[in-house]
Amino acid sequence: DTEVTQTPKHLVMGMTNKKSLKCEQHMGHRAMYWYKQKAKKPPELMFVYSYEKLSINESVPSRFSPECPNSSLLNLHLHALQPEDSALYLCASSQQGGGSTYEQYFGPGTRLTVT
Amino acid sequence: GESVGLHLPTLSVQEGDNSIINCAYSNSASDYFIWYKQESGKGPQFIIDIRSNMDKRQGQRVTVLLNKTVKHLSLQIAATQPGDSAVYFCAVLRKGAQKLVFGQGTRLTINP
Question: Residue A7 in 3-state DSSP?
Fold first, then answer.
């Protein structure tokens, strides 16, 4: 199984809502990532979890709150988002968390629209 | 830091021709290089990777070339097919780092 799954596929939320994005992998990977991708742009790294601990936060606003309940799951909690946060949110995982990071496998993404 | 650039935003080729997509990076400590394919509405899909101790690697219909002297990376796709239409990103990783740095991407269009 070389699949990263993400739910939901699409999400529309108001600026006062609280929602969560979910990501799951069963490849035994110990590093998991959240990326944000705007239209016609490359993915931008948001967070990295290595062995279930947050290892990188790319100065992401606190309205985005990541959580790694176990080595297979990664959540992104959303609260009080702005319309400019509308984007495709991608989850990825890789074999190792520290030192050399091997190829990252991406999920299909969650298309988020903030109204 | 690392920056990845020097690309054509779009590339059109005839079906059956070979495609070459280029990428340049700035940090000579970069150790690991990946090419991803992203089709519309999907996440990036791993195509092929290469480490800095190699200068060429071949996969099925794809070849990645690495020129460390000029810090240049290319992806060659042989006998391009309609299913190859997508945006192609190169990504670079510095040794010991966790953060992949992506190039801006090249949209490949296949003409029948």
Answer: strand
